[in-house]
Amino acid sequence: MSTLLRPILALLHIIYSTYLFITIRWTLLQCEFIKFIRPRSLKLPENILNECDVDEIKRLPCHLVFVVGCEEISFVDLSKIIDWCVALGISHVSFYDRYGIIKDNSPVFKRELEKLRPNVMPRVIWSDNFSTQTTVNGTNGFKSTTKVNFLSYDDGKPTIVKLTKELCQAVVVGSVKTNEIDSNLLDEKLKIHHFPDPDIAIITGNTFSTFGLLPWHTRITEFFNLSTHHNLAPKDFINILKMYAKCEQRYGK
Questions:
Q1: In angstroms, rounded to a whole number, what is the distance separating the alpha carbons of residues 100 and 151?
Q2: What SS3 class is residue 199?
Q3: What's the pLDDT score for residue 207?
Q4: Which of 28, 49, 127, 225 is 20 to 30 A away from residue 232, measured at CA?
Q5: How far apart are CA 102 and CA 227, in angstroms?
Q6: Could you give the C-alpha distances from 32 to 6, 51, 77, 84, 232, in angstroms and in order?
């Protein structure tokens, strides 16, 4: 029986792999076509307010996490996400990839944003400047800034493991009692510096996985998937925000 199943499973695997390959290539081809026929809309992020019907968005997230999954990272396209968040008034944005490539190349990220929209830079507070950079009133009718943070796998499960070891040691030496360890204490210890817990996470790529994203902080996070972040159109970003605005969070009720 197993001898018969092996070629069937191999055939199914080939069919599915071919389907994924065609789907990814078709998506990239569509993005390139959109970029060709509408180059200005993709290069000028502030046009998101003119091109898309943002009036339908009744609720914006306070903290948006953009997760780059199994695809090559495009810092040019990710910088557009910051521009759009600044224009819409989203106050906290984090960028996550499992191996910390975005975090390690944050200077490249900043240069791409400065080249794309230099007048937006004063309205962005980077995670490495939280203690020194002050809030500056924005332009185009917005009076807030957008804080940008970079995350990797090390900020998730390894941080929880490290905290567990520290609490165990504290109990052993008597500085913390076991009845003092509860969810409130963990919330306080695991809190992202200057950031609330994420309201929405947008995962890019054909693998819809969290890739180890902040397991403690994403208990009430709404997850959405995009096939790719390359040449992302403003309307696709807006459509996800519209879907998020319609979500009813019951918080366990």
A1: 7
A2: coil
A3: 85
A4: 127
A5: 19
A6: 39, 19, 13, 20, 10
Indicate the SS3 state at residue 113. Answer: helix
DSSP 35-91: HHH-HHHHH-GGGHHHHS-GGG-----SEEEEEE-SS---HHHHHHHHHHHHHHT--
For residue range 56-109, list pLDDT tens digits in order: 788 999 999 999 998 899 999 999 999 999 989 999 999 999 999 999 999 999
The two tokens of residue 153 are: 């796998």
Token pair of 112 as six digits: 């791409």
What pLDDT sits at residue 147?
95
pTM of the full structure: 0.78
CB contact set of 98 (below 8 Å; sequence gap of 6+): 152, 153, 211, 212
Residue where the block lists tokens 């019951």: 250
Please state whether beta strands 63-68 and 92-96 pair in parallel, antiparallel, or not at all (unpaired). parallel
Residues of the chain scoring pLDDT < 70: 1-2, 20, 24, 27-28, 30-47, 51-52, 129-143, 249-253
Token readout for 248 is 């009813």
Residue spans per domain, the chain: 38-246
Least Cα distance to 192 among 224, 218, 220, 162 occurs for 218
